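Researcher: We're teaching a course module on how sequence relates to structure. For the next exercise, students receive a sequence and then see the predicted structure as tokens, so they can try to spot secondary structure elements on their own. Here is the exercise chain.
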Amino acid sequence: MAGIPGVRSVAFAGMGVMRGIGIKTTLAPQGVVLPKSTFLNTSLNAVTPSYFETMGMPLVAGRNLEIGDADQKPQHIVVNQAFADYFFPRQNPLGKVMVQGTSGDQTPRFVIVGLTATAKYRSMREPDPPIFYDVLDTSKDNRGPLLMYVRTHGAPASIIAAVREMMAKLDPAVPLVEVATLEQEIQTSLWQERLVALLAAFFGVVSVVLAGIGLYGSLTYSVTQRKHELGIRAAIGAQVRDIVRTVCAPIAVAVAYGLAAGTLGAMFLLRLTERLLFGVRPGDPWSFGASAGFVLLCAAASAVVPSWRAARIDPSRALREE
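Model: And here is the predicted structure for the students to work with:
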């Protein structure tokens, strides 16, 4: 695979990012007895040595995994920053020995030789998961399914056909079950957030459109009812801007009060909506500004026709009709 034009690096992993799966384990530092509540406090991912380069996860300290690490006793592992912060806050994790289970008095199972950056594995919302990586020896019999990650110099989708062809040449019996780019995996993991945003936007637009229709009807009715008054104003010298201001001033006040009430209500309900947001601060000023601007735009659009009719009132005709 690495020889395919455009491929930068290739790696295998037992656990995929954004897949909502993982091998949960329980570890404890040697000599430390952890409470039973820390059961399944970490996740394990078996990877090939090129995994960190392929995934763009830089090594912060220590060294990378090597194929021979699988035969070492205790086994050499690389941990992420969340793992180091969880077990060894404000300490250097390199060289620390871990045991399987919550009792640190057992025989050492792992020793930390490297530290890497933290990545999300189950969702973009999850707290940074403590993960440790041991080496995956692809020369041995791996009975479970594996994920192959291919990092490219250009667009990832451009080499999918070449990878499929290479797989077929190597062994037609090996199934390539699923192919996706990492961007697609991330977008898929956010389907709930996107659905909530889509529904909220739909109902928000419908509400504003209904409000605009209501404003249009109210202004039209007001102009019709006040035609005699507006005719008198025009007859005694009122300018077009004065007529428009007379018609639109009450609606402008109502919209201003509505925006103020809506903003205060939104600020009050931020705690309820915060869990529905991802990548956006609840008090994001751009979101509030865009919402207020959209409401003002709809209000202005609903006032155009009634204001135009009010400005074109013929004073003599309006008075005769009265």
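Model: If you want an answer key for the exercise: The two ends are 87 Å apart (CA to CA). DSSP finds ten helices and ten strands in the chain.
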